[in-house]
Amino acid sequence: MSGGVDSSVAASLLKERGYDVMGAHMLCWEGCDSKDDRQDAMRVAAKLGIGFLTFDFREEYREKVFGYMVSEYAAGRTPNPDVACNKEIKFGIFLEKALEMGANYVATGHYIRKNGDKLFEAKDKNKDQSYFLWAVPREKLGYCLFPIGDYLKSEVREMAREVGLPTADKKDSQGLCFVGKVDFREFLREILPQKEGAILNSAGEILGKHDGAHFFTAGQRHGLNLGGFPEPWYVAEKNTSANTLVVARGKGDPVLYRKEIEVGDLNLFLDLPEALEVRIRYRQPKQKATLSEIKNQNAKIKFIVPQRGVAPGQSAVFYSGEEMLGGGIIGA
After folding, report:
1. Is residue 227 located within the same domain as residue 306?
2. Per-chain mean pLDDT for the chain
């Protein structure tokens, strides 16, 4: 129970369905308004008449989520810390501790549907979080419950009001709590070294300078400081060892697009069909593609339509209709 409305309603629904529910709040980062959120979660637990426990995972989170994120950016990749948090913390160490304590399941307020050992997009497509859950190990799905996946966000809030939960109208949390209120790019510049390098066009001509290739992401437009051109420039490629950026002129520049990509660290919930749909970023419309050369947790993806701004380190998530089949990490 994070202290938000989604996990609050998840707990309420489970109690209503006859489960013996115990609320659990995770401390993952110092100074992330955790005190207020924990108090809200405790108030909800008291309203529902359920027990409440607090788990301190700050050390594990710093190592497995924050540390992972920093090391990936330093290596020139663009990681997804939400995917890492779900895999390593919520459905990793927390699930293990819950089972050790005698629980049969863990439940969260994620917007995703589960049927047996299969996962599907949520009813509320604007809130669907299936993209962030592809890395949950297949063998752990049997211990997971997602009570609000069959409801719209508006329905979740209405249920909270009907039950009288104090979090019914609480605003949703936004972004990564450890970043705080500063711009994410400025946050990265506080923890990674700045190093001047060249901005090149696809012909190798120098257009300007940047303060570190690892601060930029494929497809990024802002922060390049390349003025005086009729069309905006976008990051097409970056080379952290040479500390260079290659930029594309306008959204139509072919250097910005890729038809084939490699993915690694595959986590699959079933044998994949050759033809499927793929998302390479959150809320992107699913793209038709074929998968080949699946071996040792690696594979190649070939898109029917070339994709713009493919970012190594981000997640490629596989779908068949509304069913989420698994995913992997996009390679260089």
Report:
1. no
2. 92
